[in-house]
Amino acid sequence: MIQFIHAIDVFLPLVYAISLGTYLSFFLVKNPTLGRFASHFLFLGILVHIIFLGSKWAYFGFFPIASSFASLSMLALAIGIVYYIVEKIVKEGRTGIFFLSIIFVFQLISSMFIKYDQIPNQLLSDPKFGVHTTFTLLGISALAISALYGLMYIMLVKEIKSRHFGVIYDGLPSLEILGKMGRYSTVVGIVVLGIGILLGHLWAYKVLGYFFKFDPKIVITDIAWLAYVGGWIIVRKKRWYGLRGSMITFWGFLLFFTLMVFVNFIYKGFHKFM
Amino acid sequence: MHSLSIVLISYSHKNADIAFRDQIALNSDEIIHFIEVAMIDTKIMKEIAVISTCNRTEFYFVTQAPTQLFPWLVEKYTTIRGVDINRDAPTPLTQYDRDAVMHLMAVAGGLESMMLGENQILIQVKSSYKLNLSSSYKFPILNRLFQDAIRAGKSIRTKTALCQGAVSISMAAVELARKIYSSFSKRNVLIIGAGETAELVALHFHRLGVNHFIIANRDKKRRENLASKYDAQPISLERIADALQEADIVVTATKSPTYLITNDIIATVLKSRNQRSILIIDISSPRNVEPEIADIPEVFLYNISDLRQVVIESLEKRNKEIPAAEAIVKEVAEEFMDWYRALEVVPTISKLAGYFDHIRTQELGKYIHKASEKEYQHLDELSRSIVRKLLHYPISELRKQNHKGDLSVTKIDALWDLFHLREFDKKPE
């Protein structure tokens, strides 16, 4: 089994690299056949990735997010799944290059530096924790993707308004499509992260005996989620689907991300499983 | 079969003025008629195909008598169309074999078009191909040539950017709109003006799928006239601010000396439409939209100079794609020529072998009564072996050169002349 895991550690970045190359060609040449191939390779990568993480879980007996490098691989998969769903819903693959770049780099770093000899926290062996983590990571990935769509929207608006039509203008789909993809990602993010947070609280109550603990990470995640829900209601009510909506999505996520990085830097204890 | 040539006779925007091109342009029925007439005289003509558009009328022939084609064409034009293309007419472009093949592929790819990289020509090449298929005659060489030309045309469009980008003001306007909106069926387009330009823009957006138009103009009759063509709502200029509440795209094309859309109007309108983006295309001269509006983040404003710049940049980009497109033409043309040369070499080899065998049996026949049956059998085997050995190198060299693409029609012709294969061809075997 361990040989199989090591083999996939090499094979997985390769599949993502092929998908990345095909998405890049599609972005530049816009040949629909290339777009289809790129999407198929991404699907293959996701399948292999699920088998890979499943095998690790089965072999080591704990959810595969014990180290930063293991989490990076999990994050790559989460971004892949959410992007793939959004691409299939909107039927638009020209933005794939941006997400595949992230997925490839994350998985490459993970495959290169991951070590399998560390002993994790016993909490990780509980499958319920795995479900909580999967939903949370998928939700955060979806919100990150929506932020990237927001950024693409802002960049495309800038190019259109400046009348200098470069690679971004040529390669990206219309503002309407970018807006739509961003909105879908936000909805997926809010719903899935909401489930992840709820499962986390329930699991904490069952295992640790409390529903909520004043931990900055939990507080920030809960507040960020509530802010997203509130923001989404306002955007829908005011119909700020254009530039304003994209600005809110991008800057909102950037704030959330910065706070999380800051809190992780200050508080090292909670949510560490080594 | 041997010594067939592919010949092109072409009149296009490069060698004929529009009056002459109009005179010789053929519709589908006339093309079918030309094909039928051509197939009566199969001694001259083996295959024919015609492309006729507003910018070109081109004849592609497969023939054994290339020199007789132009007189034939002159005669047929006179009888079928009553047009004398020999008198006061420009000299047509005439090309043979590989050049003719490459020309058709370049035409299909948009490389020969008046507007470099235009898309319509590929559809027209497809129509010509379908027209040939619909006739009751079989044109294997030209059908294959047209299939390959269509393939080259598609390949150029997918692998290069030769056909991308706007090349006219109205196309530039539409392209900008497409970068902002993905679907147009539910979009509202406000057109201010009811002149020719306004009508052309309305037509472009209508083709793009727009169904909801509002036409604003000072003259009631003119705005109602244009509105009736697109089932649009006609309004007076005083109601522009109201119309702006709903509009996604605004096009102004009037001769008004003052601004019809001002900063104040847009600021008020944007508030009531929750800052929803709006595309304003001002192709009026003087301008009808206050230029400062462009500074508002939710407004995409373009005037005629901006659109001209878009066109210039697109044309520059298209020009840069020419080498890549030409490489595709060359590649597909070579593939076709390989196939075409194979058609030429197979009958040549069989005719050459037949010719040698004919001499062998003729000479052997002289000994039929002079030699015993056993001796005759030995002579037969000996002569067969000599002929086989004599032909071994010429035939393998023909095959090799054909495979490498070095075998020209001229070389094959020389071979046929050297052994008088044409005369032998006519003899009953």
How does this structure look, described?
The complex is a heterodimer of chains A (274) and B (429). With 274 residues, chain A is an all-alpha fold. Chain A is 80% helix and 0% strand. The longest helix of chain A has 36 residues, at 127-162. Chain A is globular and about 55 Å long. Chain B is α/β, with parallel strands linked by helices and 429 residues long. Chain B contains 16 helices and 10 strands. Chain B starts with a strand and ends with a helix. The model of chain B has no long low-confidence stretch (mean pLDDT 88). The interface between A and B is medium-sized, with 26 and 24 residues.
Count of separate DSSP helical elements of chain A: 9
**Spatial order of the strands in the main sheet of chain B?**
7-6-5-8-9-10
The largest contact between protein chains, plus residue counts on each side, is: A-B, 26 and 24 residues
Report on the biggest sheet of chain A: none
DSSP strand tally of chain B: 10
- The count of strands of chain A amounts to 0
